[in-house]
Amino acid sequence: MTGYFLQAFIYLIAAVIAVPIAKRLGLGSVLGYLIAGVVIGPVIGLVGDETTTIQHFAEFGVVMMLFLVGLELEPKMLWAMRNRLIGLGGLQVGGTTAAVMGIAMLFGQPWNIALTIGLIFALSSTAIVLQTFNEKGLNKTEGGQNAFSVLLFQDIAVIPMLAFIPLLAIPELVEASKALADTANDHHAELSIVAHLPSWAYGLVVAGSIAFVVIGGHFLSRPLFRFVASSGLREIFTATALMLVVGIAALMSLVGLSPALGTFLAGVVLANSEFRHELESNIDPFKGLLLGLFFITVGAGIDFGILFNDFALIIGLTIGVMVLKAAVLYVLALIFRIKDSNRWLFTLSLAQAGEFGFVLLSFTVQNHVLPIDIAQTLSLVVALSMFFTPGLFILFDKVILPRFEQKSNDREEDTIEDKGLVIIAGIGRFGQIVNRLLVTNNIPTVAVDYQADQVDNMRRINTKAYYGDASKPDLLHTAGIEHAKLLVVAIDNQETSIEMVKYVKHTYPHVKVLARAFDRGHGYLLRQAGADIIESETYHSALELGGKAMVEVGVHPFSVEHKKTMYKNVEDKKSDLLYEAWAEGSEGERFDNNYRDLFIHLEEHIAEAMGRDRGDKHSVTERGWTPPPKNYVDHIKDDVIDA
After folding, report:
1. How far apart are CA 283 and CA 64, in angstroms?
2. 320: pLDDT confidence band, cut at 50, 70 and 90?
3. How far, in Å, CA of 488 to CA of 447, rounded?
4. Cα angle at 226 between 222 and 232, to 5 degrees?
5. Whole-angstrom Cα distance, residue 146 to residue 139?
6. How far, rounded to the nearest angstrom, does the alpha carbon of residue 491 sit from its chain's CA centroid?
7. Which one-letter DSSP state was computed for residue 86?
8. Can you tell me the distance from the alpha carbon of 11 to that of 292, in angstroms, rounded to the nearest whole number?
């Protein structure tokens, strides 16, 4: 028992140390797990022969992953992305498989081994790519959405691959495995209910099992989940979710099918269930932990002796596979008219092999499709291609993307002929609202944005906007900053917004600067730079939504308005103290203990204010609800004419 505890501790501490470091370095959690496995395995030698046994157990994480993939595949979503999913994804898998297979056969490999290698390298790393997209905000780009479609098709394609690969088994490997088993007197037999059935009966059993999963999942799961949920015990619901996944996997194994196939089908069936989110929240921690353990065992099982003995061959294979996949992806990007930097994002993001490649490699060895020596070599190629992937994203960020931005910037900046009382830098989702409110109240504005597409979109809806970089002093001069009263900074780049505020407040101190802040820290930096008025982009919307939530649970609307006013008053009063505490902090440690204490005090003060009775007092905000004096709008127009 002590030995198991020590092994578990070694695997866990390796993950706890390596994964956060890898994420901080931008390498992703999967590479963190792989690095952890490499360190405790080949490098230090803390784990050994038990790695393979643990890997078989950890592969159940893949089964859980496919169950969760099935839960996400709602029919409406699949139908909306059918062209990219089937067309782009199908051509990528088919084209890459054919290309790799052809090259493998040229090097003398039999067709079945060559086809297996092609299937393995057709897959990309869902974990690395999607995580990097999230970190860099690339999910909504054209390249990111197309890459997601391909990754989703690849995840689905793993199911038929797992069912098809055993048919490619090499007779010599099967016989050798049987002879080895006889020599070792291993009488253990895999449990099966179809081992001795005739083919027609086998087909009926398989069809019946799949029908049971689909029909039973649709009609029986909901009453079961309602019954379990009525107990009010979360751990029993978790046990039920695990029972469902384990039971279906066991059923598929008993009839000779892939466990992943059954759980995937079950996930699709339950995709529209009202218990879908509860299932996801219960299964996801187990999936993540088991997948992490699986990747650690993969790293621990890498034979660096093979790498050093055939270093040139393995590095050459890795680069060759990535270049070949990139070529196929680039051609598909041309065919599907993915343009500009999105084409390169799509190409480079999917050029590596994926984590499912490890699953297929292990599966091929178990089913006597690939010899162990070839599988070990290919495992190194898969791992190295994943190690190189962060470099591809760096190449995209530092080299490719700036070139396309420069190409976009070759468009000449518009000549600004209008003069406005207010200059708005950035006409995105935030700046549009500010501009619309001012223009519809006859306050002249000059809206400038450095994204040409955004400017063109504004013009299509009859909103006047100019193309140009408002952070450039000469463009601000052309826009009439000397005579403007206000500058609204609503650009997306935080660093640029801070520098713009510094420049304007230093050069044109009479101009009031109103700036959009992304969060509290950005707001402090804008205030430090000299901005006169700073508004968080989420503060008011969150406050309004909180107020509506209070109304919905039964609080009187008038009381809600009072509570919101109290909240804002307390926040405004304490904001100066919080800013001073932040400003006094040392560089890199702005949010020190003093700041945290003040912030906690702010929370307590807000709670205290919320508990006060209104009485007959009116807030300053409420007393301010009086009409403006007569001819007030005319005074504004006179100011514009004078400017």
Report:
1. 7
2. very high
3. 9
4. 150
5. 10
6. 24
7. I
8. 10
